[in-house]
Task: structure prediction
Amino acid sequence: MKAAILKGLNQLVIDTVPQPIAGLGEVLVRLQAAALNHRDVWIKTGQYAGVHYPIILGSDGAGIIVEVGSNVDTVWIGREIIINPAFDWGHSERSQEPQFSILGLPKNGTFAEYITVPLSQIAPKPNHLSWEEAASLPLAGVTAYRALFSRAHLQAGEKVLINGIGAGTALFALQFAVAIGALPSVTSSCNDKLAQASGLGAKAGCLYTLEDWHIDFGRHHGPFDVIVDSAGGAVFDHLIDLASSGGRLVFFGATRGNPSELAIRKLFWRQLSLLGTTMGSPSDFTAMIDFVKTHDIKPIISDVFTLDTLSVAFSCMEQGKQFGKLVVRL
Result:
């Protein structure tokens, strides 16, 4: 089969490898589409823990089951499914256990024509989604769902600020917030992305590249009950200032590193909650799929590529040009 294989640091090549065979409790999926995440870029550039070579990247995928392991009912053959990329979460809803992993490292991922996964890792493809839309949903969708609902407990009518709109998870957070009747605002480094977010239901937007941007923005549109962030860095101090008393700051990344300082006095005096989150449990994933179906949500797709043009997709993500998911049609 054809696959995109990372053979070394920044050495992503398209090659032919043996087609996998469904083992005990597994299904073989003929992938129809896959999607990129920033995680794939970090692995490719050696900025992710546990990188090893060779490895087929890709956490997001959707396809058709074409073969099952000896102990799996053949009724599954022909089913259209999406893959849950969060493996071995564990038994607690509170957090993942040490054996937890994400598809695409250490296990071979979805940038290939076929993949084997445990039967427990699949869900029916929502009928209202195309293959490209379905493939866009898993990692970013479950991350946004857990952040907003399982961790921050966002409610209708609450003000939510989503920092760094344009990436997949932030856009899902915007769409999910709009769906329940919350009042979302967004930030970006690009006016075009703010305008597109407005078209999706954002009530207000601001360029975080402006000096002291948070002061006027907070005065006119804040304070915010829930703030969603994946960047960290110096901006995190501003986000604390934008939170309402009793507000919740939920975050799932640190692309800009650690905050320059953490204003402890502001946190305890204003009863703020800092909520770290990573991916989601099997229950989160099931609830996210149901939520998407109930509210007829369609992922925002920025561009569609093929395996042969995958390097262009990586370049696009590395430059932050996308608004929505970058999809690979297989």
Q: What stands out?
A: The mean pLDDT is 96.
